[in-house]
TrEMBL record:
Matches recorded under Pfam families: TetR_C_25 (PF17933), TetR_N (PF00440)
DNA-binding region(s) from the entry: 30-49
Keywords for this protein: DNA-binding
Keyword set includes Transmembrane helix: no
Superkingdom per UniProt: Bacteria
Name the record gives this protein: TetR/AcrR family transcriptional regulator
InterPro entries: Homeodomain-like_sf, HTH-type_TetR-like_transc_reg, HTH_TetR, TetR_C_25
């Protein structure tokens, strides 16, 4: 999570401690360990949230809101010509969020699935923002593209972690640095420059597929 306010409320302090603890250990982390991290009693955690499940739900909301804000801010900075080098330098700052997303993927089940589906829905929103800002090319099916981008990014992340597991699973910052060191360049290159030198494959494929739903279709800009 980003730097907390100078004097966060007790509820916020507990929530932020829970995000970090869940990111490090998974959702099996105890209320007692979260309370210790937040400097409060376990009873006070339950007083504020009612149950660990409710705390988990509020952590989900906070992480998703943070991701949405970061994506939209980056789009605004790029669209206005600002440098985003500070985003690369601040990778460690976003490590707890990424660790939390990893744990949600690993946990699976209805809660994890709902979390990922919300990430995809949010991606539809911020890619639309990017299209409106003139930064992102429109898609024939915005919802399908957003879904593919989110699942591709998360799939790459999970495969990298499974193939090259960190020596210390709780070292979220190290995990993030390792992933970005191998992935940032090809990812940005693909987003910025594309892959094929011809659109022939797309033109041929479009002959055999139905038109996308009208509420998600956007006529892409001509090449």
């Amino acid at each position: 999570m980003r730097s907390a306010p100078a004097d966060p409320s007790t509820r916020e302090r507990i929530r932020d401690a829970a995000v970090l603890r869940f990111a490090r250990e998974g959702f099996g982390a105890s209320v007692r360990s979260i309370a210790t991290d937040a400097g409060v009693s376990p009873a006070l955690v339950i007083h504020h949230f009612g149950s660990k499940d409710e705390l988990h739900a509020e952590c989900d909301e906070a992480v998703l809101a943070e991701i949405r804000a970061a994506k939209n801010e980056t789009i605004d900075e790029l669209a206005s010509g600002q440098s985003i080098l500070h985003r690369f330098a601040a990778a460690d700052e976003y490590a707890p969020m990424l660790g939390y997303v990893i744990r949600s993927l690993q946990d699976g089940g209805p809660v994890g699935r709902t979390f990922i589906e919300q990430m995809i829905e949010d991606a539809v929103g911020y890619t639309k923002h990017g299209v409106e800002a003139g930064l992102i090319k429109p898609s024939r099916d915005e919802a399908a593209r957003a879904r593919y981008l989110v699942l591709s990014a998360l799939g790459t992340l999970m495969l990298e972690i499974n193939l090259n597991p960190p020596k210390d699973p709780s070292d979220i910052s190290g995990m993030v640095r390792g992933f970005l060191a191998t992935s940032y360049l090809p990812m940005i290159e693909l987003y910025s420059e594309g892959f094929f030198t011809t659109r022939r494959m797309l033109d041929e494929y479009l002959l055999y597929v139905p038109d996308p739903p009208q509420d998600t279709a956007t006529e892409p800009a001509s090449e």
